[in-house]
Request: fold
Amino acid sequence: MAIPRFWREIPSRYNLIGTECGNCGKRYFPPRIICPECHRKSVGKMKDVKFQGKGEVVTYSIIHHAPKAYEMQVPYIIAIIEFEEGVRATGQIIDCEPEDVEVGMRVEPAFRKIGEDGKSGVIYYGYKFKPA
Amino acid sequence: MEVGIVSYGAYVPRFRIKPHEIAEVWGVDGESMSKGLGIKSKSVPGPDEDVITIAVEAARIALSRIDIDTSDIGSIYVGSESHPYAVKPSATIVAEAIGATPDLTAADYEFACKAGTAAIQTCSGLVGSNAIRYGMAIGADTSQGAPGDALEYTASAGGAAYIIGRENVIAKINKTYSYTTDTPDFWRREGEKYPSHGGRFTGEPAYFKHILSCANNLMEIVGTKPSDYDYAVFHQPNGKFPVSAAKKLGFSKEQVSCGLLTPVIGNTYSGAVLIGLAAVLDVAKPNDRIMMVAYGSGAGSDSFDISVTDEIKTFNRNDSNTVSSIIQNHKFVSYATYAKYMGKIHLRGA
Reply:
């Protein structure tokens, strides 16, 4: 991943900062620059909003054949989480055995290493989810 | 001016390995290693955990227990001997992850196992001189022992974060005193993956000389004796040294048992005394007095004379983040899994 891209995404990756449309009130995560429903009416009206990230599992998948960067962690769980604040995010569920995950399970965010650009590159941190 | 601990949080990764599991790989008697070191298990970081993630988790627990504005945190120091970057401060990432940037000073500390207490001293100075409102001091490590080395049975992972301030202090720091010499008992040269040590030399002239001198000198300065303290927390590189140091100083087993966690989680290095102090604060009552003495190879000791205040009565300790709750949530792993998680296995192209 390019360093500037990750750097720009640090607020949402570290602290679950999304956006809220000042026109219709709809919230988004990851953040959007323009509300896809209000279009140009939302220009200049998108406000930052911090999500707590507590929520429940909507659906999940157990990954057995992973990209090289995640080979050490197989089998691991990737899930779609619906926050109490209404938005959804995709993330890994940790501190949970694959056989124990279920739809509706309560989770909360955790801060973990997401990846790195090899042994000499930048380390990327961000959110994962753990059982609450 | 009353300077002290306003909040705290500890974090220990959930994976554990038993000494018998390690001993079997190296053809050593696991039972005698376990008894000799006073270790029943040690913590192991997950493949996505490092000093920065441990520091952030501990910092967020500390912040969740009080209601302060994170922009009032004027300093963050992260003490560790296993910072993920050689150049790029862990403290910058922690500061960003708790929303304390950009109006603060931040830096990483390194002093073997006592870098976290050095961070508390710096924060206390800044808070006490009114330069900042709150300071955050963190000690965290994902320590490594070379495969087969005696250190492999104890070197573990964990950390704790302390918020130092002047308002709503739950534990007042009455006095801190340090004792420092040039003693080459344990070191890691630049670029080396694993540390080296002086074997038995790490005992009498290193750990015991510094811990005992530091504790005795502090008690002389403040005019106390061991029986004046309800709890004592000593650096715990294994399960036996702190008990032996306590006995030599005149402290009882009862005074040290609450803050002695190495037998279950191993030596968390910079996190060791800070997690021990967190376990004590989890149960302490107003007016309890605590002696804490850290030790860092190289070598030096930081001692603290601490008094618990009435504020502890209304402090939020009834959450799922007490040290005993965190330690209860664990999973044992095999040596093979441990080696994989700790990066001891060479992968293709790596």
